[in-house]
Design brief:
It is built from five helices and four strands. It has 132 residues and is of the alpha+beta class.
Amino acid sequence: MFTDFPIHQPPFILPAVFTIGPRVDSDEALLKFAKLISPHDKQSNHVVELVQGVVEGETRVLAGSMTMEEIFKGTKEFKMEVFDKVQLELDQFGLHIYNANFKQLVDVPGHEYFSYLGQKIQMEAANQARRH
């Protein structure tokens, strides 16, 4: 029996570029990677799709466990947590994140939360500066 579980799109985009490849410092990891790529035809994008699914899935799970304000205010911590959780999942395939670059969180059209929160923080800072 199959059940559909709706996957909710977080109301933000986390632009990121990951450099991911086989872990070369471990024979066990290289064997896992070889098993991952060996049974498929050369035209397949299964490894790319798998990695993209891991990154997106772990980001959604983490975002779902935090409030939007926690994500916005703890952006650096949020990104590190995404990195750590993705790496943990990639270990099972013999893959390693060699580099990850995250850009600023961006609102999804129709969800202007980060724009609103940024404006609110700027106004609070300006009000505080006027009081002092």
